[in-house]
Design a protein that fits this description.
This protein is mostly helical. It contains four helices and no strands. The mean pLDDT is about 90.
Length: about 140
């Protein structure tokens, strides 16, 4: 059985479009930053860390049973999203990545960030309406 086909009650995060797109964003950023010169490797590694932190925090929050913990981790993810944008924006302004790569990144980032904000708003509403069960059922 392929990894993608294994079912588990706590792996539903894989169905989230924001998680799927954040993986694609990481792959893209990884490819763009791989070619950075040696003196920028630390900055590139920091940007990659913030990129992978987006999906990691979505996953960790999802795997918690508490909506408050989930929202906490989604907010960490949103913070990493901002950190990544600042890194890539700076690389672009310093002409360390191409304008085309930045434009592609910006489109992908925009989509991830807005889906993340929508998920947060949706969960905040569920929390406010007390429409959340803190258990695995």
């Amino acid at each position: 059985m392929e990894i993608e086909n294994r079912k588990n009650i706590n792996k539903g995060f894989r169905k989230l479009l924001v998680w799927q797109e954040s993986i694609q964003l990481y792959v893209f950023v990884s490819k763009v930053l791989t070619g950075l010169p040696f003196e920028l490797k630390k900055s590139g590694a920091n940007a990659l860390d913030s990129s992978i932190s987006i999906q990691r925090n979505i996953t960790e929050g999802y795997c918690r049973k508490s909506i408050k913990e989930y929202l906490n981790f989604l907010n960490y993810s949103l913070g990493s999203c901002g950190e990544l944008y600042t890194s890539m924006f700076s690389f672009n302004k310093a002409n360390q990545i191409s304008k085309g790569d930045f434009e592609e990144f910006d489109k992908m980032h925009y989509s991830v960030e807005n889906k993340l904000i929508s998920l947060i708003k949706s969960l905040q509403k569920k929390n406010k309406d007390k429409n959340w069960e803190d258990s695995f059922g």
